[in-house]
Structure formats: structure tokens, C-alpha cells
Hints:
The chain is mainly β. It has one domain: Sandwich (lipopolysaccharide transport protein A fold). 14% of the residues lie in helices and 54% in strands. The protein has two helices and ten strands, in the order ααββββββββββ. It has helices at residues 5-26, 32-35, and strands spanning 42-54, 60-72, 78-81, 84-89, 92-104, 111-121, 130-140, 145-155, 160-169, 175-185. Strands 1, 2, 3, 4, 5, 6, 7, 8, 9 and 10 form a ten-stranded antiparallel beta sheet that branches. Strand 9 and strand 10 (175-185) form a beta hairpin. It is flat and about 90 Å long. The model is unreliable at 29-36 (pLDDT under 50).
Amino acid sequence: MRRYRPTLALILIAAAVFSWWLVDRQQPTEPAHLSQQGPREIDYTVTGLDVTRMTEAGQPAHRLRATVLRHFNDDETTELERPQLTVFQGEQPPWEIDAERAWMSADGSLVLLSGEVVVTRAAHANSPPVRMVTREMRVQPRQDYAETDEKVRVETDTDTLDAVGMQAWLRPPSRLKFLSQVKGYYVPR
């Protein structure tokens, strides 16, 4: 019996340490009242926002409209309701991006569009009008770049394309890249 005592003692110590570890993992590291944040504080609200950013040459680059803008002072981010972003294309028709809601980073370099997102461009030269519908789109306005990991549907006058995931470079020459599960219906001209 004496030769088993050290082994039994090690097993009991290991069981005690394992039990303590399990209990410690299940308890929050902070008291509940410290880990829960209260409502975020809005430092200003704008109703009927309509802002245009210009290029160095004095031409419009982007126009942002929203029914309501809320700016938060804790992290300097912004939330928008019913945002509409126009990406101007010089002589070509602009891209219009509409969403249900948006979140914008403090420096304005990232906009996360949520809910249904509709991207349109009017017809020009030899290009038909384009309408894209998706959800949850990331936009980098300074680079005129947008992307989504969600399903996307693209429609023109006669053609349709369905895919999962898309990258869009909106500066001329504009181009779109579809990432997976691409299926299309194309009518030859």
C-alpha cells in the first residue's frame, strides 16, 4: 500500500488542479457589472446628410447621403441610416450604392454596408445598365473599391449572373471579379 501512496497523491493533486481549472474557466474574469458596457454616447446627429467630396482638380469624387447620421464619441465611428454613396466616374455614369445601414470607421477609410445593398450604374457607350444586389458589403471609398463575401446577383438589360463573393474596382476602367459559384445567363448580341 505504501508504494501506491505517491501515485495516489499525484492523481488526487492532478484531479484537484483540473477541477480548479474547470471552475475558473466557467467564471467570468471580470465582475458582470464591469464587463457590460452601457449604451454608447452619441455626440452629434445629422438628419438629411448630403456631402460631396471633391478631387484635387475640383471635380466631384464621392457624394454621401443618408437619412440620419450618428457620430459616437467613444471610438469616433459613425452609423448611417439609408446611406446612398455615389462614386463619380468622370465622363461615364457614376456608380450608385444604396444600403439599409452603414458603419464608418473613425478615419473614413472603411464603410461597412449592411442589410440589402443595391449597386447600380446607368448605361453608357457600349455598356448596358448594371444592377447588383447583395448583402453586407465592405467599401474603401478612397480606393473606390468594394467587396462582399455574400451572394450577389448582377442584372443587365438581358443578362444575369449569380455568384458568391465579389470584388469591385469602381475607378475607370471599372472591373468586377466574382469569387465562387458563378452562374450566368448571357444573350449574345
